[in-house]
Design brief:
There is one protein chain. The chain is α/β, with parallel strands linked by helices. The chain has 16 helices and nine strands. Helix 1 crosses helix 2, helix 1 crosses helix 3 and helix 10 crosses helix 12. Pfam families: AAA_5 (PF07728). This is MoxR family ATPase. InterPro entries: AAA+_ATPase (IPR003593), ATPase_dyneun-rel_AAA (IPR011704), CbbQ/NirQ/NorQ/GpvN (IPR050764), P-loop_NTPase (IPR027417).
């Protein structure tokens, strides 16, 4: 456990994650108060990466539950090993009564544990559980999560209530494809994770792509910042995230690029954007405007 916000920031930086003061405060309070943390923000701003980095910084195992439409309880919590249960019942035929066989087949050794149950049963110091893109799951699944989020326990009808051996650090992420239920939000601390400022993005690019020269790293960070700002942001459906900045820097290094120019920007637009219209919008003319000194633009 980190004893201050500063030490938490330093711990995250040591594993390659640059958190600003507000984000570090939210994470610190989630650890201190032992509450789940809900992170919302645009795709690619570092929500999932925070959970991975926090697990490294805390020296805890990371468990990930990737949410999607139609996700069921058995895929998140547990399911029974029906094949093993069937073998047991066949072996017990004629040797025990039905009630005894039923008790025996519903033992913990026949449980197939999924991320939520694994998180509760992880011994001290506990796990970091990432419930990723929870907004992609449906409302019944949100209702199912409430017992875990509020009390760090789950109920299995055949066994009873299973409580956490060591409280897991729980991070939920959402890209806001839909609004989450208020009951979920009330059980969590909340933080809106925005795009980083230029200095933080530059630090991330330097750390993740050390092969990039100083000039190129600064140009990448500055260029992406301008892409996200007005009036240029209006030309695109979605601004590139931190993940795209890092990937773009790696691509530029692979092309032996020492400094940005309109041609290389236009040729590599598919690294920054994933929509056809956005890639087409970042042509050489617009790239030249973005690369021009700001005081030359009207």
């Amino acid at each position: 456990m980190f004893d201050s916000i500063d030490s938490l920031q330093q711990g995250l930086e040591a594993v390659g994650y640059w958190a600003d003061r507000r984000l570090a405060t939210a994470v610190f309070l989630a650890l201190k108060l032992q509450r789940p943390l809900l992170l919302e923000g645009e795709p690619g701003v570092g929500k999932t990466e925070l959970a991975k980095s926090l697990a490294q910084a805390l020296s805890r195992s990371l468990l990930r539950l990737q949410c999607y439409d139609g996700l069921e309880q058995r895929e998140a919590l547990y399911e029974w090993n029906y094949a093993a249960q069937l073998l047991h019942m066949r072996a017990a035929e004629g040797k025990a009564d039905a009630a005894q066989v039923e008790r025996e087949v519903y033992q913990e050794r026949y449980l197939i544990r999924r991320p939520l149950l694994q998180a509760l049963e992880t011994p001290a110091p506990g796990a970091v559980l990432l419930i990723d893109e929870v907004d992609r799951a449906d409302e019944p699944f949100e209702a199912f999560l409430l017992e875990y989020l509020g009390e760090y326990q789950v109920s299995i009808p055949e066994i009873g209530t299973i409580r956490a051996k060591a409280l897991p650090v729980t991070i939920l992420t959402s890209n806001r494809t839909r609004d989450l239920n208020d009951a979920v939000k009330r059980r969590c601390l909340y933080h809106w994770l925005d795009y980083p400022d230029r200095e933080r993005e530059l630090a991330i690019v330097r750390a993740r792509v050390p092969q990039a020269g100083e000039v190129l790293s600064e140009q990448v960070a500055h260029f992406v910042q301008r892409l996200r700002s007005q009036p240029f942001a209006n030309a695109f459906q979605r601004a590139p995230g931190i993940a795209e900045s890092v990937e773009w820097a790696k691509a530029l290094v692979a092309l032996d690029t020492l400094a940005l120019d309109p041609e290389v920007v236009a040729d590599t637009a598919g690294i920054l954007f994933k929509q056809r219209d956005d890639v087409a919008a970042l042509n050489r003319d617009l790239a030249a405007q973005l690369l021009a000194p700001e005081d030359t633009l009207s």
